[in-house]
Design a protein that fits this description.
429 residues, alpha+beta, 8 helices
Length: 429
């Protein structure tokens, strides 16, 4: 569930017109802001640029000839899928670690990720401006890398820096529907094919704790530029100003205001306003493409760890940390003496250590060489609201047999305001 960034500043009584526009910025480790945003139920969007890596076709042919990879394994859509993923620019990914198959040579990507690949049968609605086709996906119980081919009608030449507007929602096996939080934003740019003049690739990394076995409804509602998204954002800020002036009262706390917005369905109103604002813009590439994709179930059985504070669900590509907290999400009262979750460290048998909180390097004795997870995102469930956990994504497949131990870090403050950190071993081989 997405929330307005300005909600957390309501108590300051500032003139919202003086606040800067929201823009995507490259960000490094965000230890403090992550926790602030999660508390406020906010998912910020950040842009980052990755270099492209050319695919070594000669190396692929050589490996096929040598028998390392079969010709069928790198043929057709799967080869095109991994080629597009290798050049993908995934927003909000770690600046230090790449997601599996991103920035990887084709032989390496196929060898490592082939068993996670699938390409469900789906037909997208057509448009005069072009066609959309699914190239495939790789997935586990919490995450999915999915790529599409956009073939533009001859004679239509989009500008170089454009973004398709995607809407993603899930239908769970029990019929429950939920919208993915990565929906309705210009996040990943169109990547032009290096071999065909009118072909572009759209690659997205989606996360959700209930993604396995669900049906993914995908809609592409035209292509736009970042300047156009700024126009949309201005209308959303104007809407929030109007809602604040109409409903916010001086005796409201931040928590009460957040609760009021949730009860009145302001999030749904913002999403409706966002969609309508995009429709008022003239798209760089017009059209609407829709299709329902039956997602596969996870390839392996998740590994579950129950602790007093959290539940950990580990798959080969990700780790879901589900917060077991009875804390009132709308309360403004903070008890600094109460232990709160700080982060976790996963130790592998080859000496690699993954951490989901960069501050652990400075606050604990964890080595500076510990790796960040390649991607982190808040997790919410269909039967609840708000951020109820986080999904941490590995930079390569990790099997349970590789995990030596997992430790959990929690922190609290004493009466003098000094922070104390505890480390608990929650799993050991």
């Amino acid at each position: 569930m997405n929330r307005n960034f300005y909600d957390i500043f309501d108590h300051l009584g500032e003139d919202f017109e003086d606040l800067p526009e929201l823009k995507r910025k490259k960000s490094d480790a965000k230890s403090l802001t992550d926790r602030v945003f999660e508390k406020a139920d906010i998912r910020p969007v950040q842009r980052k640029t990755r270099p492209y890596r050319l695919i070594a076709i000669a190396a692929v042919i050589a490996m096929i000839a040598g028998g390392t990879i079969t010709a069928a394994a790198v043929s057709g859509k799967m080869e095109e899928f991994f080629s597009s993923v290798s050049k993908a620019e995934i927003s909000d990914a770690s600046p230090e670690e790449s997601l599996p198959a991103v920035n990887a040579d084709l032989p390496e990507a196929v060898s490592e990720m082939e068993r996670f690949y699938s390409c469900p049968d789906v037909s997208f609605t057509s448009s005069d401006s072009g066609t959309v086709e699914l190239l495939g996906l790789y997935s586990d119980s919490n995450t999915m890398m999915i790529s599409f081919r956009l073939t533009v009608t001859e004679g239509i030449s989009p500008v170089s820096d454009i973004y398709m507007l995607p809407y993603f929602s899930l239908t769970l096996p029990d019929g429950t529907e939920k919208q993915l939080s990565q929906s309705g934003y210009l996040s990943e740019p169109l990547i032009k094919s290096g071999t065909a003049e009118n072909v572009y690739y759209m690659t997205y990394y989606l996360t959700d704790p209930e993604i396995s076995g669900a049906v993914l409804h995908t809609e592409f509602a035209g292509a736009y530029t970042m300047d156009q998204e700024q126009n949309v954002q201005k209308k959303l800020v104007a809407l929030d100003d109007e809602l604040r002036k109409q409903y916010f009262t001086e005796d409201m706390s931040i928590g009460q205001w957040k609760k009021f917005q949730n009860e009145k369905g302001f999030d749904e109103l913002r999403e409706k306003t966002r969609r309508e604002a995009f429709e008022e813009e003239t798209p760089v590439l017009s059209g609407n493409w829709q299709g329902d994709i039956q997602l596969p179930s996870a390839k392996s059985e998740p590994f579950v760890i129950e602790t007093e504070g959290n539940t950990y669900i580990l798959d080969e590509l990700s780790m879901l940390v589900s917060y077991n907290s009875d804390e009132d999400k709308y309360s403004d009262e903070a008890d600094p003496s109460r232990e709160t979750y700080l982060g976790s460290a996963v130790y592998l048998s080859d000496g690699t250590v993954f951490i989901n909180e960069p501050a652990l390097r400075s606050k604990t004795d964890i080595s500076d060489s510990a790796k960040d997870f390649a991607f982190r995102w808040g997790a919410s469930f269909a039967d609840g609201t708000g951020c109820e956990g986080e999904i941490d994504c590995f930079s390569r497949p990790v099997q349970q047999s590789e995990i030596e131990k997992i430790t959990e870090f929690r922190s609290f403050y004493d009466e003098n305001g000094e922070e104390h950190i505890t480390e608990t071993l929650i799993y050991s081989k």
